[in-house]
Fold this protein.
Amino acid sequence: MIKVAILGYGTVGSGVFQIIKENNDIVNKKSGEEIDIKYVLDLREFPGDPCEDVLVHDYDVILNDPEVEVVIEVMGGLHPAYEFVKSALEAGKSVATSNKELVAKYGAELIDIAISHNRNFLFEAAVGGGIPIIRPINMHITADRIQEIAGIMNGTTNYILTKMEKEGADFDSTLKQAQDLGYAERNPEADIEGFDAVRKIAILTSLATEKTVNFEEIYTEGISEITSDDFKYAKAMDMTIKLIACSKMDGKRVTAFVAPMLLKEGHPLYPIQGVTNGILVRGNMVGDIAFIGSGAGKLPTASAVVSDVVDCVRHLNTSTTIQWSADKQELEDFSFSKKKFFVRTTASKDKVRDVFKDVDFVDGGVDGEIGFVTSVMSENDFKAKAGTLGIVSRIRLDD
Ligand code: HSE
């Protein structure tokens, strides 16, 4: 029998508890051992809840119990999650976590500690919720150079953008609706400004490059400036707007960004609706692989966490392969990155042609302005030209 402890009895923690109890036959069979939840750690009381019998409020009880072999960290936030996870690994316990903040900031260090103790630090749920993406990159796409990772990695923003597109609604009222329905946090900044997605692409890119990508160095733009008029133009172009997290690996040159993008109908991420996530990985041999599913939510996220617990139990005294060193992965300067841009302006067509030369005009039916798509140009070049013209807004194209 393997004893485990769950740190945090919130949405994901209670989901982990439920899956280990409800699916115990399959989880035990896959692990090759009986998994027993010895402790649940939380500051709160849960009278009448099934966790009541194993609830503790002091982390040291878990840390100092040699019977606990796997710690499940689902508290979120950096502190004290970092201190708890680090001390658990140093005490010879394996750790499974869903905490992307923790993994994005301390991934290399915690993997290193785990390996030096022949233990595991696993984080399948940190990116894409219930979608298997960490294990495929680490364990399955191992014959390829990964050339590109691109995806919709935030369910909240995809829910908002989908609603705006379908209902013609504006950003603020859609966000409010999403908050009322519990799809968006009361403080939605991390989701809508791209701070959640940027940590996820930093984690995936670190795994692809086997070095540490600093998420703070990745160009990040959220969706709060997207309007219902942008969707009118998108529709006129047979396109949609998605928040895309992307990295491209071209030998040693690595580019990464998070930004709203216009995608053509037919693009593999075009049909991804609502809270669903979709992640594309391009290998130089295998080509494109798509991973699609529930990127958030209690049971999908908990399912990924429990799959890591199973992996930890299968590899109790040996580290599974995760190559992610503390060496810094340099990123290319985003200002040199090249794309087409969709632009809205109140300037005349002649002025647009004067400044941008070769463009395709788009009639979005919006009064008092015109829309156009530029040729491929660098961020720097675009900025200089847009400054001369004067623009209402711009969105990059992925076509
Ligand atoms: N807030 C995140 C999302 C949860 O909306 O995708 C999963 O990381």
Remarks:
- Residues 129, 154-156, 191, 196, 295-296 surround L-homoserine (CB under 6 Å).
- The chain has 14 helices and 17 strands.
- The mean pLDDT is 97.
